[in-house]
Each structure stands twice: as C-alpha cells, then as structure tokens.
Specification:
Strand order of the largest sheet: 1-2
Helix content: 55-70%
Number of helices: 10
Largest sheet: 2 strands, parallel
Number of strands: 2
Radius of gyration: 26 Å
C-alpha cells in the first residue's frame, strides 16, 4: 500500500510535469524545488526527479528540441501536414479577438474560422506528447477533435481572453487521455500475450508427456487455469496451439 508521502510525491511530480507542458515543455529548477518543498527532498532525490523529467523530454532551464524525438515517418507526416496548414489565412490579434467573440456568441462560421486559427497550435502541442506510446498523427487527430468541440463551448466564458487557455487545455487533456488509453490497451495486449504463451508452453509440456494432443480439461487440471481462461487464450491466438485438441 502506498504511503501518504508516496502519494504526495506522485501528485507533485504530475503537477510539475503539467506545469512544464504549459511552459513549452520546460521548467526551471527553482520551480521544481518549490513544488517539492513540502517533501524536503535530498539533492540525490531531486536529481532523480530531473532525470525523470528529462526522460519525458522536459527541458530543465531551457526547452528541448522536440522534433529530435520524432520518427522519420512522423517527420514526413508533419512536413506534409504543415504544408496543408500553410494555406490557411493568418490573423492579427484584433481579427482573432473579433472571431473569438463571434464564436462565443454561437456563430458557426466564426467557430470554423477559429478552428483554423488554432490548428497550428495543435501541431505544436502534439510534439510535447510525442514518444509516449501514441503516433503523432493520432495525437493531432485527437487534439483537432477536442478543438472542434471546444469552439462550440466558448459561450460559458466571460471574455475572449479566456478562450485560448480553455481551448489549449482541452487539446492537451484530449492528448493525455488518448495516451493513457493507448497505454492501458497495450497493457491489456501484453497481458493477453502472456496468457497465450503460458497456455502454449503448458500444452506443449503436457503433450510431450502424454505423446498426444491434450484436451482443454486435461490442461485445466494440470495448470490450475480455468477452462474458460484456456479457451480465451485459444481464441486470442486463433486456435493456433497445435498441441491442444480442438473442442467440439
């Protein structure tokens, strides 16, 4: 069971990571030390925190080059996508504010224009989350969906200046949620793979002992696994475990 100290440490680390994301994937040492002040970390422990942040492509004191972490495929996609975005109109601050106000009033055309304004920022935000188990293209897609939904929700704001913060937060939250879901899916996949491997190994051992194919019931009795669990493993691998007799 986690102690209160461990829970506080984990929450503080997540808070620091999010702050860094909001600052362009960069954080000052003073900010880290202030955040962990309550925990009174030693110099060695703080170094471990810095190492963790650097592994997650967060610059300490100065931003890191996020594109260095992209795969060749992602770089090619990014270049093509940026070419598409370069055809969009650029607006000055006054025009952007006027469109935001109209979008807040529920004008559909203004909301569509506002989406175009923020599409390049979605790309930049996606780089902050690259290399964390999700493809850049998928991250941008999730961010664009969040942006599309976000521009329809601006009516709840008091002024146009709050719009950018709200939209950026929605985009970041969508990308983080997607990464979390992807990670959870990968864990389920690994869990399923381990189950298949276990059943295949046990089936091979028992088949060699009996000099024939084994039944699901025999394998269940030998391994202690339930019949249902063994059948699920067989289904996951397309009934390709040759040592097991196919159920009728």
């Amino acid at each position: 069971m986690e102690t209160k100290q461990e829970i506080l440490f984990a929450k503080t680390l997540e808070k620091v990571r999010k702050l860094a994301k909001e600052q362009g994937n960069c954080i000052r040492k003073e900010q880290v030390e202030e955040a962990f002040q309550e925990l009174a970390l030693s110099a060695e422990q703080l170094e471990l925190v810095y190492e963790y942040l650097e592994k997650h492509k967060i610059g300490i004191g100065e931003p890191v080059d996020l594109e260095e972490t992209l795969s060749e495929e992602e770089i090619d996609y990014l270049e093509e996508y940026k070419k598409e975005l370069s055809t969009l109109d650029t607006l000055n601050d006054g025009q952007k504010e006027a469109i935001t106000i109209s979008a807040m009033a529920g004008e559909k055309e203004a909301q569509q224009k506002l989406i175009s304004v923020y599409l390049p920022q979605v790309v930049e935000i996606s780089k902050l989350y690259a290399g964390q188990g999700a493809y850049l293209e998928d991250l941008i897609g999730e961010g664009n969906v969040a942006l599309t939904v976000g521009v329809t929700m601006l009516g709840c704001l008091e002024n146009a200046k709050e719009a950018e913060g709200m939209l950026i937060k929605m985009v970041m939250d969508a990308m983080e949620e997607y990464i979390a879901e992807t990670a959870a899916g990968e864990q389920e996949g690994l869990k399923a793979l381990r189950k298949v491997n276990k059943v295949a190994e046990k089936a091979k051992e028992l088949s060699e002992d009996l000099k024939r194919k084994v039944t699901v019931e025999e394998l269940s009795q030998e391994t202690g696994m339930s019949v249902k669990s063994i059948l699920e493993a067989m289904r996951l691998c397309g009934n390709s475990i040759e040592e097991i007799e196919k159920p009728r």
